[in-house]
Amino acid sequence: MSVVRLCFPLSKVIDLAEHAMAATEHSRSPYDDPRPAVPSLIWVKDDGIYLMSNGIPRQPGSPENTARIVYAHGHESGTHWCYGEPLGDDFVEYIDLTQATDAGALIDLIRSYAALDAWLVFTVSTGTFEMTFSPTRPTA
């Protein structure tokens, strides 16, 4: 089974998360989700792999992006075709910042670990992923 680790610097992700939490409106998942839109990070795989806020209005991004994004370490723009399984084709996944975990709401964990200059890590295998936090910068 193929496994991919995606590492996002919380020093940058925190701005996205706080934008989503402070926004009064939020974009909805494109997959006919009947639940109300909640503050979320949007995990995207298209031209690279990145996170963005679902807060409306969007945070201004660089000239080539319509919204501020944070790329996974080593998965910047131009790396689109480098991925096979388990990541597969392009996708969009909404990560609810208010979701409860064993250690509290996800936003509270992001805030705590961002203060430690840690990393948000997605460990992806076919059909599933797990989020954890790492105190160390990824290698290569």
Summarize the entry for a quick read.
This protein is 16% helix and 36% strand.
Describe this entry's structure for a reader.
This protein starts with a strand and ends in a 6-residue tail after the last strand. It has 140 residues and is an alpha+beta fold. The protein contains two helices and eleven strands, in the order βαββββββββαββ. It has one domain. Helix 1 (10-22) packs antiparallel against helix 2 (106-115).
Largest sheet: 4 strands, antiparallel
How many domains make up the 3D coordinates? 1
Order of strands, widest sheet? 6-4-3-7
**What is the SS-derived class?**
alpha+beta
The whole-number mean of residue pLDDT values reads 86
Shape by Cα distribution = globular
Break the fold down into its secondary structure elements and pairings.
Layout: E1 3-9, H1 10-22, E2 25-26, E3 40-46, E4 48-53, E5 55-56, E6 70-71, E7 91-96, E8 100-101, E9 104-105, H2 106-115, E10 119-125, E11 128-134
Helix pairs in contact: 1-2
